[in-house]
Amino acid sequence: MTLMIEARGLTKRYGSKTALDGVDLNLAANGSIALVGPNGAGKTTLMSLICGYLHPTSGHLRVLGDAPGSPALLGRIGALPQDAQLDPGFGVGLQLAHFAALQGLDKPKQEARRVLELVQLAETYDSLPQALSHGMRKRVIIAQALIGQPELVLLDEPTAGLDPANARAVRELVNRLRGECRFIISSHNLEELQKMCDTVLHIDHGRISNQLTVDDAGQEGALTLTLAPGTEDQQSVLAQVTGVRQVTRRDREEYLIRYDLGGHPDFDLELLTALKAARIPYRRLALGLSLEERLFTPEQS
Ligand SMILES: Nc1ncnc2c1ncn2[C@@H]1O[C@H](COP(=O)(O)OP(=O)(O)OP(=O)(O)O)[C@@H](O)[C@H]1O
Description:
Elements lengths: L2 E12 L2 E12 L4 E4 L6 H9 L6 E6 L13 E4 L11 H11 L5 H11 L15 H12 L6 E5 L7 H14 L4 E5 L3 H7 L2 E6 L2 E7 L8 E6 L7 H5 L4 E6 L4 E6 L7 H11 L4 E6 L3 H6 L5
Parallel strand pairs: 3-7, 3-8, 5-6, 6-7
Antiparallel strand pairs: 1-2, 1-4, 8-9, 10-12, 10-13, 11-12
Helix pairs in contact: 2-3, 3-4
The chain binds adenosine-5'-triphosphate.
Adenosine-5'-triphosphate binds next to strand 2 and helix 1.
């Protein structure tokens, strides 16, 4: 089976600065990937290598089975670079059509309209970029990454600086297209990545420090409980529920509860029953750990 990304000892140095340090990866082509990690961890560098914008200093990299930048990958990868901008002098439809023509597509204007429709901005075809909001411009640039229906789309911080409505529009777009193409998305918003991606790669100091499958969250004997506002200080009540190993208060009314998974397969129902008996109202119960907990909080036994 052809892998989406295969890397061995992938290293990128900028002068004396090592941005990627011997990365090994085997990513199957059947899901979307989140890249997370602190500023300067190497996420953009990895994306640039995958796109073929940069060459590795050493190591081996294959994308969809071919070397980045090779003719075999032309038109198969789309990208939203981190600081991508539109040309202020031309209408957005014209710019997208121009890129479609550069890709050699037969009907560039039709393709420009298609991708604008995908990002729900069909009406902006004749608009100049400055007539659009920041969020709309970002969505237009995402539309550019979708020209030619690439198999793999890389989005570097697609929702950075967007208001909740525009960020949601981007999330919905990614989820709508997930059957048609694969995404690699870099973001600092873990909650958002959890809604869009299947696998999470945590990069730190140029190395992959953790790789998680989002769907595995329910297998960990943990859940997050949010009580109704004003229902504070219930830690001791929660700790007495049968099967509970540990209760940690995260926010005012939010608790992380670790429990004995083996002995209590229906622990969530048992917990709800206990809450009802103690007349403690709750707002939300989520099985598993949040991505933030899984990445940054060591397992406490
Ligand atoms: N062109 C360059 N010349 C020199 N150093 C660079 C260059 N590009 C990146 N770096 C350095 O390489 C490291 C990795 O940078 P990179 O942009 O890949 O990180 P990142 O994880 O994308 O960060 P952020 O979350 O801030 O976007 C950083 O220390 C950065 O300063």
